[in-house]
Amino acid sequence: MPIEAVADALVEVRDLTTLLSGKAVFDGLSLDIPRGKVTAVMGPSGTGKTTLLKHITGQMRPDRGTLRVDGQNVPTLGREALYALRERIGYLFQNSALLTDYDVFENVAFPLRQHARLPEVLLRNIVLTKLQAVGLRGAARLMPSELSGGMARRVALARAIVFDPMLILYDEPFVGLDPIALNQVLKLIRTLNRTLGITSILVAHEFAAVRQVADLVHLIANGRCVASGTPEQLARGESDWTRQFFGGEADGPVPFQYPAGDYATALGFTGAAA
Amino acid sequence: MSADMKTRAPRGGMLVDGLAQVGDCGLFLLNMLGAIPRSLRHLREISRQIWFVGAMSLVIIMISGLFVGMVLALQLYYTLSIFGGTAALGTVVALSLYRELGPVITALLFAGRAGTAMTAEIGLMRATDQLAAMEMMAVDPIAFVATPRFLAGVIAMPLLANVFSLLGLLGAHLVGVTWLGVDNGTFWSNMTSNVDVWKDIVNGTWKALAFGVVVSLIAVFQGYTAPPTSEGVAYATTRTVVFASIVVLALDFVMTAFLM
Ligand SMILES: Nc1ncnc2c1ncn2[C@@H]1O[C@H](COP(=O)(O)OP(=O)(O)OP(=O)(O)O)[C@@H](O)[C@H]1O
Ligand SMILES: [Mg+2]
User: Fold this and answer.
1) What are the beta bridge partners of residue B96?
2) What count of other Cβ atoms lies within 10 Å of the Cβ of residue A43?
3) I need a labelling partner for A115 at 20 to 30 A (CA). Which of A71, A163, B14, B241 fits?
4) pLDDT tens, residue order, chain B (260 aa)
């Protein structure tokens, strides 16, 4: 689908093509992430949402195409420039990825200790503020192994925002959260965006939660951006893609099955009767 | 996955794979050495690792040193008594320990105790995305995780080897003097007049340093390139012990031939 260029895009993806193990994960993907907004990236499982986030942060390089973050073409950046860029990006991993050697406090303090020479008092206050924001100030001295999955994700979130980045990437932040924590995290995403103007990219499957915070939704399938719009526009379901995805129909343009050979052959039924 | 290090897919042919691994390992070493300046910013991490690696291995090294010294004294006393040379017991024990057994046995124990721990720890950090998380926080995992552990191993090994030899000497003294009745004065004086402190102790320390380099390199490399699964980490840990032991013994032969 043709994409109308957003006037002020923080992230600008053009004709991105990526092959992984011989399979095209992206096949000419183009999309824009507007500055200062919350943009949700949705799509079926295995469609490459995590891969897209890895491209944006330069953890993986695409085979073709350009990807500009704040004007810099990420795939061509050298180590120094890439690290400088990453200091301005917060990333919430799908599986938290806390450092198991350190307690909760030190995990959140880690980016500060590495990149800023702050007086201990100031550092302590910043870390406690972020932990308070995710409701875990009391857990500051617990080790990651003593946390539940949902708590670990909130700690990881506190760590991702400790530097007040210009861009935050959330990879499935709602998984494993109870309704109260989910509302807290939603509120946090909204607050970070509205008060600090932090641009956010939100990868999530929960449309009910997404429509509460997202200004814009990109739907990715088959290596391309198949639909974009506000949550309301997409919920109306004007194309096959959106009808299937947001209507939850099992069959449609998105196949439920990972590409595979003939089912009957795999079960050994071919020719047996003939 | 880090930009500069990727686990290679097997290419078939054990020899080719083996050589490719050695090549990768060499590149990895260069990467780590190149990261030393950046890694010096993480002094706290380096000292934490030295403490960790050293303290972890100290008890096993001390106990082993003591027993090896005791056995050595028994065996050599018997052999020397055939020639009526038991007065040389101290000398022979000290030479065997400082020149050979101290560095070699310490390296083997070090690989089994600290090396496996390094491999498993780094492998699990990869498997749980901790290394990727560091990269995302603009912290180079080579400089923050790999190099400090490598340096800690290189620094700890010579110290541990000397502790081993010292404890071995005490063990030999215990058996030779206290039990078998070699004269205390003879044990020490014969030894100090024959062991050329600089040559023998320094040569042994060089050996220990070289073993520290190869064992730590193998341990860190195996952990860093382990497939991010529980099976992958388990195999990598085993490989650390196997490769490190073989390389240490082979290198020992080569170094002995040159240092004699
Ligand atoms: N390192 C890799 N090597 C080969 N293929 C990979 C690799 N990582 C991901 N893939 C493939 O790329 C595709 C996209 O993976 P990705 O993790 O980005 O999906 P996703 O959209 O985040 O899915 P989910 O919603 O389940 O998290 C998948 O089909 C996966 O099989
Ligand atoms: Mg994903």
Assistant:
1) none
2) 22
3) A71
4) 444 444 455 556 788 888 888 899 999 999 999 999 988 888 888 999 999 998 889 999 999 999 999 999 999 999 998 988 888 888 889 989 999 999 999 999 999 999 999 999 999 999 999 999 999 999 999 999 999 999 999 999 999 999 999 999 999 999 999 998 888 888 888 777 776 767 888 889 999 999 999 999 999 999 999 999 999 999 999 999 999 999 999 999 999 998 76
Q: From ligand 1's centre to the CA of B31, what distance in Å?
A: 29
The residue assigned the tokens 């949550």 is A231
Partners of B93 in the beta sheet?
none
Per-residue pLDDT reduced to its tens digit, A4-35: 555 688 999 999 999 988 888 999 999 999 99
Residue to probe by mutation, ligand 1, list A27, A49, A57, A172, most atoms within 8 Å of CB: A49
Q: How far apart are CA B195 and CA A48, in angstroms?
A: 67
Pocket of ligand 1, candidates A41, A51, A245: which has the most ligand atoms within 8 Å of its Cβ, to mutate? A51
Spatial separation of the C-alpha atoms in residues B117 and B221, rounded to whole Å: 13
Query: Could you count the other beta carbons within 10 Å of the beta carbon of residue B171?
Result: 23
Higher-scoring residue by pLDDT: A108, A206: A108
Are A115 and B138 a contacting pair at CB < 8 A? yes
Of A63, A61, A70, A59, the closest CA to residue A32 belongs to A70
DSSP string, B99-138: IIIHHHHHHHHHIIIIIHHHHHHHHHHHHTTHHHHHHHTT
In chain B, what are the domain boundaries?
A: 52-259
* Interchain proximity A59–B136, CB inside 8 Å: yes
Query: In this structure, what DSSP letter does residue A268 have?
Result: T
Residue nearest to atom 7 of ligand 1 (CA): A20
Please say if the pLDDT value at position A213 is more than 60. yes
Give CA–CA dist B200/B236, Å, rounded.
Answer: 35
User: Which of the 8 DSSP states describes residue A97?
Assistant: -
Interface test with B, best of A18, A54, A59 (most B CBs within 10 A): A59
Q: How close, in Å, is residue A15 to chain B by CA atoms? A: 22
Question: In the CATH scheme, what is the code of domain A9-236?
Answer: 3.40.50.300
- Domain spans, chain A: 9-236
Q: What share of chain A is helix, strand, coil (3-state, %, to 5)?
A: 40, 25, 40
Determine the Cα–Cα distance for residues A182 and A103; give it in Å rounded to an integer.
23
What's the CA dihedral at B227, B231, B234, B236 to 10 degrees? -30
> Would you say residue A145 has pLDDT above 60?
yes
Neighbours of A145 (CB within 10 A): 8
Contact (Cβ atoms closer than 8 angstroms) between residue A38 and residue A218:
no
Looking up tokens 């979130």 gives A157
